[in-house]
Write a structure and sequence with these properties.
The protein is α/β, with parallel strands linked by helices. A nine-stranded mixed beta sheet has the order 3-1-4-5-8-9-12-11-10, with helices on both faces. A three-stranded parallel beta sheet has the order 20-21-22. Strand 11 and strand 12 form a beta hairpin. Helix 10 runs antiparallel to helix 22 and helix 23 packs across helix 24. The radius of gyration is 28 Å and the shape is globular. The N and C termini lie far apart (109 Å).
Amino acid sequence: MFLPISPKELDGAPDFVYVIGEAYCDHPSFGHAIVSRLFVSLGYTVAMLPQPQCDGDYMRFGAPRLGFLVTGGVVDSMVNNYTVAKIRRKRDVYSEGGDVGKRPDRCVDVYCRALKRLFPDVPVVIGGIEASLRRFAHYDYWSDRVLPSVLASSGADLLIYGMGERPIKDICALLDRGVPLGRIRDVRGTCYIADSLTERQTKAIERGDMLVCPSLEEVRGDKRKYVDAFNIQSRNADFAGKPIAQRHGERWLVQNAPQRPLSVKEMDEVYALPYERRAHPVYKRGVPAMEEIGFSLTSVRGCFGSCNYCALTYHQGRIVQKRSRESIVEEAKKLIAMPDFKGYIHDVGGPTANFRDPACAKQTKVGACTDRQCIGWKKCPALQVSHREYLDLLRELRELDGVKKVFVRSGIRFDYVMYDKSDEFLRELVKHHVSGQLKVAPEHVSDDVLKRMNKPPFEVYLQFKKRYDELNAKLGKKQYLVPYLISSHPGCTLADAVRLAEYLHSIGYMPEQVQDFYPTPSTKSTCMYYTGIDPDSGEEVYVPRDRHEKAMQRALMQYRAPRNYELVKQALRLAGREDLIGFGRQCLIRPTRAEAIAAKHNADGAGHGAKNRSDGKRQRRGR
């Protein structure tokens, strides 16, 4: 049974009204489904209010008994609404029928301000990726300026950052003891705004047990201060991190210490909640996002890959948390029993499908290292590599009655595969779990760029491709490798973009879609984009910000497209690579007919002039 979306489904006021920026889908791939089901399991009533459009919508249930919950959804509303070129998207896969316009820009701010205006005395708690990644003062790409914490701009009372299950349980324990929601201040994994710091907090700062990062005003005025603040925040994002305070004018943003990761038992409990696993039937035209995730299984959360452009490291953390095989198989059986299941499990994974355990035993005891990464540009010597448990899980799933095929589509780390001394996983992946194409993310060919991304050297990808192709040939399969690539990332020059185009030409591949680097809130790459500084080294970094250069870099990846001809030609000339304009096998584009005729005329003229000079010399010698 779905949770109520109208007052007639309730007997009196609910404990919470949950305002969400996307369509109501009771599936564990959606944070609002997990959070609402968890509150209900703890004995509270929750009414769902998806995508409110007017005051009447906000007032549908009246004032809840305890408070409002607000989330922007699984994607930041600005990313959801705009392309990287800041053009309005024409489709929203998280709304009914893919319709746009149902989620406002900066929807967490919009929702909270409306609630505070209509219900000024009712506490508001915010969470989800939009709130989580905007919890400190942050660079906002769409306005091209540093914005304050979303707590300050929205007027919300409490912010749950990261994954919310543990904070919710702690909040509910306090509610059960009679503590008002609006007065809860000491739960790990939460943030709040205070007029001043307490005496206890001041002493903790003096002892070094609590940190103060540069203020909103400082990070707005000094990019080095912005980098300092980012480093303090990002290095204290896992459970071993310290509380952090950041001044906003006369007030303070306080982030309590992060929560611990969930245990296997706790993860199993979360995914055993009674989800309907579909969009609410009120959506007659369906919700497009459900088409892919409806028959997918989440096996893990968290990622120690730490790609610098990815927000998940900051939101879910670097410590991988997993469900038991028994829990995942049980959910698979529920999928099989659904009337519209066709025999295909679309995915078994998470942020990275083939990460199943923390990177090393140390992480679960003392947290992730703050001075090194587990994998990426350099592999940590302590990294433990094994696909054994994931392999066993996939084998068990594909043997279930009613299952025709189990796909792995959430992405694998090819470098992690190459670090495995055994080919067993890659062989079975190729044999059983690829649907014609395997998508992986080398992202670029230039090692200078890959280092800024914290991706492995390009040679690692080439080794993986060679082995993947060999296994396909051996198994008699024609399955292709589709590389995800990013243009205009910080550190990427026009010369780097040309090298990427040369590689694509050498393998005869042109991507159908190109991803320009998107500076989303609070990633390390966004910090580089805004400041021009690498937070790890303190070095200055070249950043392609000019729209025309970004267009050229993007066009080079699709150099064969006629619409890109002039951009590609200009890029090659600016990069001093006119050798790639011509009729040779290595050339990316041909000259225009007029240019070819002019070149031939010049060549013929040069040859004729040389002949005349030679004849003249012979004549002079003959005298």
